[in-house]
Design a protein that fits this description.
The structure is a homodimer. By secondary structure, chain A is an alpha+beta fold. Chain A contains eleven helices and twelve strands. The longest helix of chain A is centred in the N-terminal third of the chain and has 17 residues. At the A-B interface, helix 1, helix 2, strand 2, strand 3 and helix 3 of A face helix 1, helix 2, strand 2, strand 3 and helix 3 of B.
Chain lengths: 331, 331
């Protein structure tokens, strides 16, 4: 059945039934009224919103609806993680051409519900509209669980801070390259790269550890390591020096792409790892407390004019061949 | 300058500067980080989101960018009003083709900032993306100021409740008709209708009075009186009887459209008045406390099978020629 046949209210009813599984005790009103409502706890509240448009952010040729749902929500959960927060509530606004199959929208929701449950976030509202292209706008509300206003921000990096990243980088870009060019890789590598690109796992627990352990500056790696580190430097009015040989390039990316692997790790984007800066002692404590690798890749410098400088093991500059992309000016 | 020339980050900087005028004391972090943050008060929190798409919800031929900004935010503020809440924070996600003029986006924001200031709501975040059509998704956060979980919901109408509406109806539909067909009406009528359609004023103060005075059921009239009353009946498992002669049709609509005026008031939509149900005594008290007209137009009935029945002064059924529209199935 097409969404045009089911109609807006039929579709809302169907989707509302899917998401009523695990109501939170503080939720007063979910889908179906003019607004959703909940009882706030005394804590710093967080909200982030992201829009994705067909043929700009995703292609229905290479992404299944269920993966699209997962990945769309992952991006916003990752923003909450990058503040040190715990995601709580999700709003989903869909623009849908009438010819879209209802089953596909259900699959999209299934993907969002799956990842939401994994990270404790429930869909409590949204909007569905007719549109000429598929568009998905996701809003995630969260809280830090703290009432002291402390957060992980982009602007709190200080000269002398170590620059660290969680996990490994480049696998999402590798997955995209593999899917877009239909590369044939060995089964394990292919599965790793595909999952990294289509089913990323935001570092929600890790972000909360960072905040608790006294980290002040963090960002999630969505635009690419260099681009996101640039955001931190700009907001903090500082520079950064990164030793490229320390960058934790994902092993499957090294295996599959050789010389291109480093570029993918530096500027591929969509890895949804956390980049943070802190004194060495704090980073050391964090390494002992989180279950994923944490790698120090460089240092924050006082001079903002440096920007992000990439050096090899001997301190010589390394050229960056691509940077993360930005909208409108990207081709 | 086109948005493609300025780029995503340039545009965000420009818009961020526009909205930093009146920070709320509880706001911790606005535009520019992974998420916005604020300190919650102990009160019921509200959130609503609405998407608008070019050529489905608005036409850039008949709407200026500034009016579009005003009206887009008005719709979401009205949802918060319909819960009895006070709007606080706004997130704006824009999809923009690269050829759009930066000045037009600035005008869009100016319209949103204007109406936001009028109702105490500040823009604290959002997203801007390249897209093939203009799309606007607005999320408004609010609170009731109460910690007792009381709200105005669609599901709380009870048999015997009077059905009341604020203000008058049909002027937005009249304004659309006038603008779309370039009708020449007298200056005052034209101004009234145009304002009603392009610069609606949601009943934010009135919604809070309703909640304080003990009203339990309300909805804002966005889809049209009959369609929205249907939503209330369905959610409350009840029916409704409306005396069409009691409906407060806007005088300018009567003057300009004669016989068509009642239809416009019944099903035109986008009036952003509040429809609520309550015992007669409560409605009487509210009339004394709000500055706009409040008109009782009918009564909630026990039998949901009745749906919304329209009758004349003698109790005879009246035919409805149009109903409010819904997405996907609408032409």
């Amino acid at each position: 059945m097409k969404v045009a046949e089911l109609g807006e209210f039929g579709l809302i009813d169907l989707l509302a039934k899917m998401v009523t599984g695990s109501p939170s005790p503080r939720l007063i009103l979910g889908i179906g009224d003019d607004a959703a409502a909940w009882q706030a706890e005394t804590a710093t509240q967080l909200v982030t919103t992201d829009s994705l448009f067909q043929d700009v952010h995703f292609s229905l040729q290479t992404t299944s609806w269920e993966d699209l749902g997962w990945k769309s929500l992952a991006a916003s959960l990752s923003d909450i993680a990058a503040m040190g927060g715990r995601p709580e509530y999700v709003l989903v606004s869909l623009g849908l051409p009438g010819h879209i199959e209802v089953d596909d929208v259900v699959a999209l929701y299934r993907g969002m519900i799956d990842i939401g449950q994994r990270f404790g976030a429930v869909i409590i509202g949204g909007d569905t509209c007719r549109a000429s292209i598929v568009s998905i706008t996701i809003t995630v509300l969260g809280a830090t669980g703290r009432d002291d206003r402390r957060l992980l921000t982009r602007s709190a990096a200080r000269p002398g801070d170590g620059i660290a990243v969680t996990g490994s980088l480049g696998a999402s870009a590798g997955g995209l390259e593999m899917l877009a060019n239909q590369l044939h890789l060995d089964t394990d590598t292919a599965a790793d790269l595909k999952n990294a690109h289509l089913r990323p796992l935001p570092r929600v627990a890790e972000g909360q550890v960072l905040l608790r352990r006294g980290v002040r500056a963090a960002i999630d790696i969505s635009d690419g390591l260099v681009a996101d580190l640039h955001h931190v430097c700009r907001a903090s009015r500082a520079g950064a020096r990164v030793e490229v040989e320390k960058i934790p390039v994902h092993p499957a990316v090294k295996a599959a792409f050789g010389d291109k692997a480093l570029d993918m790790a530096l500027s591929g984007g969509e890895d949804y790892e956390l980049l943070f800066t802190a004194p060495a002692e704090i980073i050391r404590q964090i390494k002992g407390e989180v279950s994923c690798p944490v790698t120090v890749i460089g240092e924050i410098r006082a001079d903002p004019a440096v920007g992000v400088s990439l050096v090899d093991a001997t301190g010589n500059p390394v050229e960056l061949t691509r940077t993360g992309w930005e909208h409108f000016t990207a081709k």
